Amino acid sequence: MNDVASMHSKTAVAVNGFVRSVYNWMTIGLSLTGFVAYYVSTSPSIMRLVFGNPLVLILLIVSELGLVFAISGMIPKMSASTATTLFVIYSALNGITLSFIFIAYTRTSIASVFFICAGTFGVCSLYGWTTKRDLTSAGGFFAMGLIGIIIASFVNIFIRSSAMDMIISYIGVIVFVGLTAYDTQKLKNMAISQPEGLSEGVIRKGAILGALSLYLDFINLFLMLLRILGNSRE
Question: What pTM does this model have?
């Protein structure tokens, strides 16, 4: 009986440690993104370099996509330090491309939307962690919704419809709320099912992968809410 209790205790400690590491790295990524975005927005020369030259902006976006695919698809083959470095670089690059929000929206509305997003994200993440319902099928549904958002957003680049932009934003909120709950449950299952005796490096790579998923959910949910609730400077 004591052996069983001891095993459950060790499992709980391992799971809590892994999850804490995931959220710590997600917080580090978000903090770095926010700091870089604000800093770049206060530098007219950097803003002109990034947003005044389409090639630079395209290069940044392509680099970000490449880093996401590299971390997601090649993490088993890379070291923990490499995975961590790529995640930090991605967070910084994302801060550069997101710096425009400090020019497009008032700082007060950015702050208020951030707290709304944090609260929404927290509730959805808590639901994903505590629910007994298997969210696998729902995750597939929301993933299809994400593809639809990407296609619609691409089309709207040429149409430039404010109505479509708002519809995409509302649907985007629903999609990323769902993905937050799904990714949290997936993270929980990953933490519980990980075998004992894993090296610290393997655990770190799993934490970075989980942090990237939740980071992307948070950032995209924030941007969708900002488009709906944010006060424009114009």
Answer: 0.90
